[in-house]
């Protein structure tokens, strides 16, 4: 039963992981744009970094708001 509760807790972090990975993908595309000297590279890099930071901050906030399971 304890394992089920732990897996249920981890399920809530899938959303934050998706935000983090989306930000990482945007940042990689921005880096490729920067290498090719294409427009909007700076904006993609900035938006990607902000998305990554938002995912991390929201995941940490969720960690602090989780209730400890009753024993």
Would you mind describing this structure in some detail?
With 71 residues, the chain is mainly α. Helices cover 83% and strands 0% of the residues. Helix 2 packs antiparallel against helix 3 (41-65). It starts with a helix and ends in a 6-residue tail after the last helix.
Indicate the topology.
Elements (H helix, E strand, L loop, with lengths): L1 H10 L1 H24 L4 H25 L6
Helix pairs in contact: 2-3
Derived structural class: mainly alpha
- The strand count comes to 0
Q: Please tell me what the overall shape is.
A: elongated
- N-to-C CA distance: 11 Å
Q: Report the average pLDDT across residues.
A: 86
**Whole-angstrom Rg:** 17 Å
Helix content: over 70%
How many alpha or pi helices? Answer: 3
Low-confidence stretches: none
Question: What are the secondary-structure elements, in order, as H or E?
Answer: HHH
Let me know the largest β-sheet: none
Q: Hey, roughly how much beta strand do the residues contain?
A: under 5%
Essential attributes:
3 helices, mainly alpha, 71 residues
Summarize the structure.
The protein has 71 residues and is mainly α. It has three helices and no strands.
